[in-house]
DNA sequence: CTGTTAGCGCCTTCAT
DNA sequence: ATGAAGGCGCTAACAG
């Protein structure tokens, strides 16, 4: 079997407490003894059992991360960045993939992270009951999605401003029939689609453009959904000359639909996305860039800070990250139209 | 504080042992008492402490998953699928993002998973010393990348066959100057690029095409690398009329480079990728499809099987998953050439 | 600076 | 079918 703390203590001729103190860099051990213990431990290949030390100390040195879809670029990127920050600080990451309603429900009723994590980073937006469940864990909480909520440190972007810059860009190019592909079919507590929609409506109103409900379609935040949504929009009696997609993945789906319909981008239809997906540049997509990895890293850092100093108040409101419109090749003025 | 097993025992008027047995579905508890205990536990919001039960039983119900880059589509997708299988079986996933040499080294020297996991799924290829370190954990091991290695259950694809189908496709279209973008710059124990290269060379030889070293470039498995590599190939005295990229991400980089050089795909240059990335279809990329999520799920299942029945021998050799060439729009016969 | 004494919360014999 | 005792490996007071 693997060596225990007592094996090390015996081999080093000291007590287990001293080994514990020495190995964790706590004061109260002479340098000589400390280095001696370190040598013995290394030689025996000793690593403290996390279970045992968690049980005794109450600290787990692990962070629970809740994700809706690990395979999706946005979440994978946030997770990647957050994990790096956590592991650099000596914390392990327990991953929970809660994409399906069933998995999600089981997670929140059984709450397997109870007594298992020192903090939770949620990349999904908990509803009120779920938030309460998380708060009942009594550990620091953070999220990189959705709006402010009690008990959570939230890192995010200004969805309104991002959307406005995208839609304004289309308006400025001269478009009047501007469609939107949203991702509204998810759970209601997911406010991002709503904020983006409101911003879209506001810009249209501002520009004196009447809103046409036939120019909105749901793309479910997936490539396939985006393709379906674009196909729907094209079937309208007066199809849009430009489309704002609430995510790059949906925008790419839209591009595919347009190509299948033999429509040219941007000559026939302009497309703007949201996120600046790693492949947006490959397809030349104009989009609203947000610092995805940075949001994960920042949320992780804020959580660690609260762990280091439990008295420090978590940042109030939302920590806002910068966004910017990246102009590429999928947007242009509308085709000149005949007399109307 | 949260309820402990003794709180439940007291509230139910039984002993802690009985609560333990009842909640874990072990025999020796009358149905009546069992359901009574379940009710009390639910009412108290009791969940057993994982640390305590691991310590007492030696089982952790946790799987360690090692990943080089969570944000990369391939790994994110494998991880996503594996996590679903594990969590459905009641296991938690501890994620280790070992992209940098430094992180990786620290992981294998400190081995933080020791005494913390019941099994390990590695999505990176451990070298001999690293494999030995993992074996020393004394738990089942599996991987979805690289070749067969002692002590590991390996799920993968036939890289040779996949590459052959891609390169043969180009040969059959009439191409003679076929370039390759590889991902060879990684660590040496990463055999995939080598296998694919050998298969590429074999197909050329078979077709009586002389190999031109100027037609090979390293794309580092990234979009940017693929773009650089393609740019390099185009600078050759006699550039290729077709290119096989060892991954879709590099192929997409190549497409971007070609677009920047105002070359038409497939008219001027044909491109084939490898993976069938979720966005390959969006850009119309011809590619070798492999069941990525399925590989993660299958590896997870095989691990669980070994956990259920420790006596069962792990599958010998490699569990091979099917591949197939997906024809899309980036490949065509070469332009007819003048007399030569 | 170092050792001793108690648990942390649960599971596992062994009794009954 | 149930309860009592012991211990998993470590950390946290408390003594010296």
Task: Note the total helix count of chain A.
Answer: 12
Determine the N-to-C terminus distance of chain A: 85 Å
Strand-pairing-aware structural class of chain A: alpha/beta
Which segments of chain A are poorly predicted (pLDDT under 50) over 5 or more consecutive residues?
none
Q: What is the tally of beta strands of chain A?
A: 12
Mean pLDDT of chain A: 92
Largest interface: A-B, 54 and 54 residues
The oligomeric state is homodimer
What is the CATH architecture assignment of the largest domain in chain A? 3-Layer(aba) Sandwich
Strand-residue fraction of chain A?
15-25%
Domain HTH lacI-type (chains A, B): 3-57
Keywords (chains A, B): DNA-binding, Transcription, Transcription regulation
GO molecular function, one term (chains A, B): DNA-binding transcription factor activity
Pfam families (chains A, B): LacI (PF00356), Peripla_BP_3 (PF13377)
Account of the protein in words:
Two copies of one chain form a homodimer. The first copy, chain A, contains twelve helices and twelve strands. The first copy, chain A, folds into three domains: 5-48, lambda repressor-like DNA-binding domains (434 Repressor (Amino-terminal Domain)); 62-157 and 292-322, Rossmann fold; 159-290, Response regulator (Rossmann fold), CATH 3.40.50. Chain A has helices at residues 5-12, 16-23, 31-44, 50-57, 73-88, 101-110, 128-135, 159-172, 192-206, 223-234, 248-260, 292-308; strands at 62-67, 92-97, 119-122, 141-143, 152-157, 178-182, 216-218, 242-245, 270-275, 286-289, 318-321, 324-326. In chain A, helix 11 links the parallel strand 8 and strand 9. The first copy, chain A, has a six-stranded parallel β-sheet with strand order 2-1-3-4-5-11, with helices on both faces. The mean pLDDT of chain A is 92. Chain A is an alpha/beta fold. Chain A is 42% helix and 16% strand. Chains A and B meet through helix 4, helix 5, strand 2 and helix 11 of A and helix 4, helix 5, strand 2 and helix 11 of B. The first copy, chain A, binds a DNA duplex (16 and 16 nucleotides) through helix 2 and helix 4.
């Amino acid at each position: 079997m693997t060596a225990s703390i007592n094996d090390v203590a015996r081999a080093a001729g000291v007590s287990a407490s001293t080994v514990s103190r020495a190995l964790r860099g706590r004061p109260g051990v002479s340098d000589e003894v400390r280095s001696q213990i370190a040598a013995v431990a290394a030689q025996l290949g000793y690593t403290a059992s996390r279970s045992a030390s968690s049980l005794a100390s109450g600290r787990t040195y692990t962070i629970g991360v809740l994700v809706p879809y690990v395979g999706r670029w946005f979440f994978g990127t946030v997770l990647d960045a957050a994990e790096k920050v956590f592991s650099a600080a000596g914390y392990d990451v327990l991953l929970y993939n809660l994409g399906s309603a069933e998995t999600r429900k089981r997670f929140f009723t059984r709450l397997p992270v109870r007594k298992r994590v020192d903090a939770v980073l949620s990349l999904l937006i908990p509803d009120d009951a779920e938030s309460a469940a998380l708060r009942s864990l009594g550990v620091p909480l953070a999220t990189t999605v959705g709006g402010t909520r009690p008990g959570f440190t939230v890192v995010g972007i200004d969805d309104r401003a991002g959307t406005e810059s995208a839609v304004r860009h289309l308006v400025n190019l001269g478009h009047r029939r501007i469609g939107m592909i949203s991702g509204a079919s998810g759970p209601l507590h997911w406010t991002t689609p709503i904020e983006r929609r409101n911003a879209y409506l506001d810009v249209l109103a501002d520009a004196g453009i009447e809103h046409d409900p036939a120019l909105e379609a749901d793309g479910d935040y997936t490539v396939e959904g985006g393709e379906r949504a674009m196909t729907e929009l094209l079937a309208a009696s007066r199809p849009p000359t430009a489309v704002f997609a609430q995510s790059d993945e949906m925008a790419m789906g839209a591009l595919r639909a347009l190509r299948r319909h033999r429509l040219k981008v941007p000559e026939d239809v302009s497309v703007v996305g949201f996120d600046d997906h790693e492949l947006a540049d490959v397809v030349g997509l104009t989009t609203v860039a947000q610092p995805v990895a940075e949001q994960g890293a920042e949320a992780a850092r804020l959580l660690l800070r609260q762990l280091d100093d439990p008295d420090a108040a978590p940042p109030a409101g939302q920590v806002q990250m910068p966004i910017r419109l990246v102009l590429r090749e999928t947007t242009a003025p509308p085709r000149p139209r005949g007399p109307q």
